[in-house]
Structures are given as structure tokens and as C-alpha cells.
Amino acid sequence: MQSIRGMQDILPEEIKYWQHIYFAAINTFEIASYQEIRTPIVENTELFLRSIGEGTDIINKEMYSFKDRGNRNLTLRPEGTASIARAIKQHNLCNEHQVQRFWYLGPMFRYERPQHGRQRQFHQLGIECTGTINPMADAEVIYLAQHFLRELECTQWYIEINSIGSIDHRNKYTIDLEKYLSQYIHDLDEESKNRLFINTIKILDSKNQKTQAILDQGPQLINYLDEQTLNHFHKVTSYLDSLQIKYTINPKLVRGLDYYNKTAFEIKTNSLGTQNTICGGGRYDNLIEQIGGPAIPAVGWAIGIERLLLLVKNTIKLQEQPLSYYIATQGTEAKKYALKVIPTLQKYQIKFEIDFSDSSFQKQLKKAYKKEALICLLIGLDEVETNTITLKWLNKHEQKNYNLEVFLKNIQKNTKQLCIEQ
Ligand code: ATP
Ligand code: MG
After folding, report:
1. How many degrees, rounded to 5, is the angle at CA 180 between CA 178 and CA 182?
2. Where would I find the Aminoacyl-transfer RNA synthetases class-II family profile domain in this sequence (predicted)?
3. I want to staple 192 with a disulfide (CB 3.0 to 4.6 A). Which of 164, 203, 205, 340 is the partner?
């Protein structure tokens, strides 16, 4: 049996990085008053149809949808924002006059061709700031994204930002763009040709140079935005300037989800080949209302953890706790006696490993060396009978016998001392 194509096990060696990222997220976001939220992996398919938009790649070809035994149309969530919008509405988590901040981390599912940095089950870490149209919120979420990357020693990235206006602005623009591009339909790349009458605006994303040259001469989205939208964008960039956050304005940046309006941004890297977007986000002022909730504006982003790890795995400094005690025993009585030590080690968070075998002390010591333990606790019949415990310092070839109660009473102090002595 094998795991499903595009869905990977995360093995213990790898999990260390995931835990590091999770704790870095807690530290970064909770300090900024973002609260963690977890929503179910499965939602009604309709939620995504109504939020992500029918012409998008996710809805057209990437959804993991199925019917359950009750004949309900369900989908494994392809992203986190729609579910959070649903939770906000369902539990009345915010209103128009109240700012709420959330963060999340969890698996997402998209039926895409698996490749480097692209999987069918992948994970996103994201934040959402709801309840305000203030451009300062846009700046706050962008600030937190770049701050989080810095915390992880990730430096190989750049921010691109754009204003994509409202649906109305984009609809007007799309009509003109479609008209303009239709004249050059034979010169467009294949993918753009296919998109022309379905998801015209996504052609801006094309990597094809000829298509890009044609676009450069055509209508520009910025000219379709109203005063208020331009003003908002100007404020966002000026806040970023005061935060000394570097960005480039990319007038062709559009996102793959329909719910965004005004601010859209991406954090990209040059180090990952074609899968070069690590973080995508923007403002979504109409989403919560669109799925039947109150009109609550919001802004947020999501980072792909697998892609992030491809970038930072070599630079993250993991703080691994050393194995303080390897516990070697001989015989059933010694094993029972050894169990008395465990609760104290657990209480003081001192890392230990018990050898379950009945092999010779010599063999067990060999294993202790291999595991790079600081100390091997030796417990045999002698120790049981004299109510003591023998400590063997593995790098000094020194050993000492202690009274068990004295050892346990001083274990915190002793272990610290032992570590220093190492
Ligand atoms: P892409 O253009 O790479 O497909 P996207 O625009 O579909 O990205 P978003 O929906 O904005 O991506 O998701 C935010 C982030 O989630 C992406 O920047 C990326 O890091 C990550 N991501 C998206 N799809 C996948 C996937 N199939 N496998 C791994 N990571 C992904
Ligand atoms: Mg995609």
C-alpha cells in the first residue's frame, strides 16, 4: 500500500521543522493579538463555489469533491479563508465595528499535477484580519507575513503588490481587455487562448513573453479603478514605506481566487523555479456577505508551508533538547525500580529513554553512546538493594553512585550542573 499520489507522510525527522514553524507562528501572531482558529477539513461544496468563484482553476479542475452517505455534496477544503468566513458568520464572531484577528495552520487539498513545491495535500498557514476597511490592516498583515519569514531566517523573497479594485472595476476592464486581446488571439500562448473568454483577467499572469508584450500595449487595470480605491492603495503603500518594507508594484498581479478586492499581494522567491509564490493574500471586503453573513470587510494571506520549508530548511536553527538520561536496567526488579525515576524526569522536562532490553549493561551502554546521551543511569540488583542509582557520564568515563531520594530531590539542579559539566 502506498500513500495517495501528491499526498505525503511527514516523518519524525521532518516534523521537527513543522513544530518549529508552529511555535514560531504562535509567537509571532499571538503577540499581535491574532487568535488561532481551526475549522473542519470538509465543507459543503457550495461554500467554495460561492466564494472562490466559478471561472477559477480551483473550482474548474482542482476540487476534491464527493458525495457522502447522506448524499450531501462535500469538498475537502482547497484553502482556508472561505471556511473562516463561514465560521465567522455561523458563530457571529465579529460585526462591522469590531476588529477580529485570526490565524490558522492546516492541510488543504487541490487536485493538481504533483511536482516540486506542488502537492495534492499541502498545508497553509494564514492570517485574517476582519472588521475594518482601514488600509492600516492591509499593512499590518503584510508586515506580519514578512516578519514571520524573517523569524524563520528566510531572506530569499520579495513582495509584489497591486490594487485589483472591485468586481465592477474588473468587469469593465475585462470587457475591454477581451475586446483588445481578441484581435491578437492567434498570437497568444495556448493557455491564454483558452482563458480568453472564460477567465480573461488571468491572462495577465501569463509567463509567455509574446503574450506579455501584447498585454503591455493594451488596456491597464489601474485606469479602471475609482478615486477611493486608488486612495486606499496609496495609503497601504505609504504605511509599508513607514515600516521600511520593500515591495514592488506589479500592475499585472491578479490572484487565482475571485473574492479579492482592492489590495492583492504575493511574496515570491527566485529560489524555487516555477513554483515561486510562497505567500498570497489580499483584501476581501465582500466574501462574508457573499456567503450569507453580515457585510464585514477583511484582509489576509496564506503561506504554503511545504514551499516555505523548501526555502528555509537549511537555515532554520532547530533547538533540539539533548538526551539527558539513557536508562539501563538488568532484571525485573530493576525495571520496576527504574519506573520510580520517570515521573520526576517528566515533571522537570528532562529528556530520557528507557532501554527495554535485558541485554548486558555493556550492550545497553553502547546504545546510550550511539544515542549521544549525556548520562547513562545504571540500575541493577545492587542499586535496588541499596536504594541507590548509578550515573555514568558518557563522555568522561566517570561514574558515581547516589542515594535514590537524594538524586531525585536534586535532579533539577544536578541535571543543569551535569549539562554545564559537559
Ligand atoms: P500557485 O500559483 O502556485 O498555484 P495559488 O495562487 O494557487 O499558487 P494560493 O491559493 O494563493 O496559491 O495559496 C497560497 C499559497 O499556498 C501559495 O503561494 C503556495 O505557497 C501554496 N500552495 C498553493 N497551492 C499549492 C499546492 N498545490 N502545493 C503546495 N503549495 C501550494
Ligand atoms: Mg494554484
Report:
1. 65
2. 1-343
3. 203
